[in-house]
Design goal:
Elements (H helix, E strand, L loop, with lengths): L5 E9 L6 H4 L19 H4 L23 E4 L11 H9 L3 E4 L4 H10 L2 E4 L2 H13 L4 E5 L4 E3 L5 E3 L4 H9 L3 H6 L2 H14 L1 H8 L1
Parallel strand pairs: 1-2, 2-3, 3-4
Antiparallel strand pairs: 1-5, 5-6, 6-7
Helix pairs in contact: 8-9
Length: about 210
C-alpha cells in the first residue's frame, strides 16, 4: 500500500450528499480483481454520455481546470451503498489521494484506510464553505497533511481533523492490515515457539 503523508494539488467539488458506491463505481466495472485501469470507471455514468466515450462537460472531473485532481471534496454520507473495494481503487487509479466530506459510510471509510486513500471528516459548515470556494474557482489547490492532521483550503485557512491513531499510523507507514501484522512477526514467532514447548501435543495434532 502506498504511504500517505501529505498531498497538495488540484481539488474538485462534488456538492452532492449520499453519493453511493453504485455511482462511484458502476457494477459493470467491478468484474475484475485488478486495480489497474479502474479510474476509467470512476463516476462513469456521470462522466460520460451513453456511448461511454463522450465526456459530459458539466461534470466536475471533466472540467479543464480539474484535470489531474488530487483531492475530492463532497457532501455527507459519501460512499454509502455496497461494500465494493473497487470504489476506493478507482479513486486511487484516477489519481485522487484524499476525500474531504462531513461524513462517510462506515465500510467505505474503512476500505479507504486499507487501501491508501485518506478520508477526512470536517464539520459540515467548513466543507460547505470549501465547496463554495471550489465552485467559484475550479481547479483551486488544497493541501491535506496527515502528519499534522490539517486541511488547508483554497483560501489558505487551516482546518484540523482527527483520525483514529492506529489507522493514521498505518497509512503514514503504508501498511495494510497484513503489513501491520507482519511488523510483529518476531513476537508472533516467539509466542509460537514458547507455546510449542509448553503444549507440544497441541502442535503435533495441528501438524497431523
Amino acid at each position: 500500500m502506498k504511504k500517505f503523508v501529505r498531498v497538495t494539488g488540484i481539488a474538485a467539488a462534488l456538492p452532492r450528499i449520499n453519493v453511493d458506491t453504485d455511482a462511484i463505481m458502476p457494477k459493470k466495472w467491478c468484474v475484475t480483481a485488478s486495480r489497474e485501469g479502474l479510474g476509467r470507471g470512476l463516476f462513469a455514468e456521470w462522466r460520460y454520455a451513453a456511448d461511454e466515450t463522450t465526456e459530459n462537460p458539466d461534470f466536475v472531473l471533466n472540467h479543464p481546470a480539474c484535470r489531474g485532481v488530487r483531492i475530492l471534496v463532497a457532501g455527507a454520507n459519501f460512499g454509502c451503498g455496497s461494500s465494493r473495494e473497487h470504489a476506493v481503487w478507482a479513486h486511487l487509479d484516477f489519481g485522487i489521494r484524499a476525500i474531504v466530506a462531513p461524513s462517510f459510510a462506515s465500510i467505505f471509510y474503512g476500505n479507504c484506510f486499507n487501501n491508501g486513500l485518506l478520508p477526512v471528516r470536517l464539520p459540515e459548515p467548513v466543507v460547505l464553505d470549501i465547496l463554495r470556494q471550489l465552485e467559484a474557482r475550479p481547479g483551486a489547490a488544497m493541501s491535506v497533511d496527515l502528519e499534522a492532521c490539517t486541511v488547508t483550503g483554497p483560501d489558505g485557512a487551516v482546518h484540523p481533523f482527527t483520525v483514529e491513531p492506529a489507522a493514521r499510523l498505518a497509512l503514514l507507514e503504508g501498511l495494510d492490515e497484513i503489513g501491520a501484522t507482519l511488523k510483529r512477526e518476531a513476537a508472533i514467532a516467539a509466542f509460537q515457539a514458547a507455546d510449542r514447548a509448553r503444549r507440544p501435543w497441541l502442535w503435533s495434532r495441528s501438524a497431523a
